[in-house]
Each structure stands twice: as structure tokens, then as C-alpha cells.
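Table S2 (continued). Query chain:
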Amino acid sequence: MQGAMLRHQQPATGRSKPVPRGASRMVAKEPLSARLPKANFSVFKRLLWPVLLVVAGFAAYEGAQRLMPYADRPITKIAVQGDLTYISQQAVQQRIAPFVAASFFTVDLASMRAELEQMPWIAHAEVRRVWPDEVVIRLEEQLPVARWGEEALLNNQGQAFTPRELANYEHLPQLFGPQRAQQQVMQQYQVLSQMLRPMGFSIARLEVRERGSWFLTTGAGSTGPGVELLLGRDHLVEKMRRFIAIYDKTLKEQITNIARIDLRYANGLAVGWRETIAPTTAQPAVAKN
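Corresponding output:
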């Protein structure tokens, strides 16, 4: 008999549980150390570093205090360096004697330098320590270029200083002017002196007055007695060039008879001649009864 035959299958013996659907896997249990909360040491580290720094600083301070008596020695050597012409090493050492009574680390170098630069002939001072018990001083003296008025000298920077022995520097040119014009007068002196030197002239006196007028007097020498030059207020270099040009052509032969030259004109100059002194004749003595 054709047709579908149905078989009634009996359930298999030995299967008491239903088969689970889907994939499944075995999961291993985590160790106890992984499941416990981890300790946070960041706060501890932040507190530990300042403590270590304080301890290290205190240890360094204590060590320095114990070693200081062996390292901080009295000053026993003073070395003075520099080309000294106007001051002596003895004068320098006497000036700084109150400072070197201190020890190597406690000596006040800034005050010592300031005290040295108060000396008239010292333009600049450098002071330094040299281990273990020496102080080295390097000095630069003033370079006197001219006299400033009647009571001071000027260095090459146009700065005035006042030594005691001014009488020894009367050979220097004499510059005059308002106190505020020291550097300006020195600069003009250097420029004009350089222009006159090839002609055999030197500057004996240079003055600027309150209103700004300049007056120059040459020194006596091979060119003859000194000549006064009236330069006016401005264009000093141009006026000096004009004088040089006219001097070579006209004035050179008569320079010994010239007392002053006025250069305040726009295109020329005026000459003032020296007065001739007539020789005096001896008067015969008259006898009286």
C-alpha cells in the first residue's frame, strides 16, 4: 500500500534534560587579588615629595653649618690689578681696610666697590673673591684730558672729577661751560682739536656760554702766540673749515700779528690785529738843587 507511513518514535531513554539552544562557553573565575579594590598611592606620593625636600634641605643646612668654620676663612690676601699712575696700592688698601676685616663669605663686595669708586682717580672698580682667602681688585684710573673750569678735571667721556692736586695739571687745556654741558664741550673739543692739529695749532681754552656762543683760544707754540676764534652758536665745523682754507691762503704769514678772528659771518671772517707797543725811550734824569 502506497502512501506515507507514519512511525511513532518512542523517546530516547537516558535524556532527562532538554538541550539548550544557542552557543555556550565556560568562563574562568577571576583571582581574588583582581577582584579586590586597588590602593591609590597618588595622594601619598604628593605628600612624600615635600617631606623629602624639607629633610634634604635641613640636612644640607646642618652640613653647611658644620663645615662653615672650616670653609669661611679670614681675608689674608688683597691683590690690586691695573695700570696705576695717579694712585698707589697702599692708598687703595687703606681705603678698603674696614671691609677686609670680614671673612671670605661675609665680606661686602658691593660696598667695597662703591667705596673704591668714591676715590677721585678711580673711574671703575671690579671686586671678586678667590678661594680660599683672597680678594682681587681690578681698577681703571681716570684719564684726564682737560681742566673743567678752575676746580675740576674732565676725563675722555666728558665726566668731571676733582682730585686734590689740580696745580699739577695746568698744562691741560681749560674748558668752560654750564654744568649740564660737560659732555658737549668735551665732544666739541675733540672734534675741533683734531681739525686744528694738522695746522700746528692746539686748543688752550674752549668755552660755551649760557646763550650758546662758542669761543676758542689756540695755544702758543711754533705758530706764534695764541689766537682767539669767535665761532658763534652753530655750524662750528663749517666755520672751522672756512678758517683753515683762508689761513692757508692769506693768514698764515701774518698769524703772529693777529689777536682774534671773528668767524660769525656767513661768508667770511674779520681779523683783529695785535696792538704794537712802541719802544719807550729813557728820559734823562733832571738834577735839582
